[in-house]
Amino acid sequence: MPGGAREIGLSLFLSGAELGPAWSPDGELRPDVVLMDIAMPGLNGIEATRLIREQYPHTRVLVLSQHGERQYVLAVLQAGASGYTLKRALGSDLLQALRAVARGETYLHPEVSTVLVEEVRCPGETPTPREKEILAHIVHGETNPQIAASLSLSIKTVEWHRNNLMSKLNVHNAAELVRTALQRGLVVADG
User: Fold this and answer.
1) Could you read off the pLDDT of 42-87 as tens digits, one per residue?
2) What global pTM score does this model have?
3) Can you say whether the dihedral through the CA atoms of 66, 71, 74, 75 is positive or negative?
4) Structural domains in the chain?
5) Between 20 and 30 A from 172 (CA), which of 36, 69, 158, 159?
């Protein structure tokens, strides 16, 4: 085991594949902190976090993920995670995060904090489901007439939604709209 884990009194637990049986009601595993990834085989880290927090409220979850986008951060924190750090963080940052969560504190990587600050500053600026639908078409390079035909809307309605999106996201052209939508995780670009 790495020396840093011993230094803060941590033990190595199980991998995601082994976690299920140990967390059953009859299981013996009752860790104080679980280091969780979002992308895992089977149950994803968001749902696993929710289940752990529901069944074992004393267990705190620190998420270690490559994903710093808004939708992942919000989802896992809403599921009950006590902290969120990024895989690109230095080893010392991970130890700091583990220590903080083990002490009962909340830990957020600085990039994750920025995402949450943006969310707090613009709470009413979240696009509606219809706007997100139109935004997805815009990201895929469709014109207003193409979007209108695809969604059975008038061109004027599509233009209205596009203008509303640009206002909500504080952007001034289509390129900024697409970039902001992808950065904030409002839509996902097809590979």
Assistant:
1) 788 888 899 999 988 999 999 999 888 777 888 889 899 999 999 9
2) 0.59
3) negative
4) 3-121 (3.40.50.2300), 127-183 (1.10.10.10)
5) 69
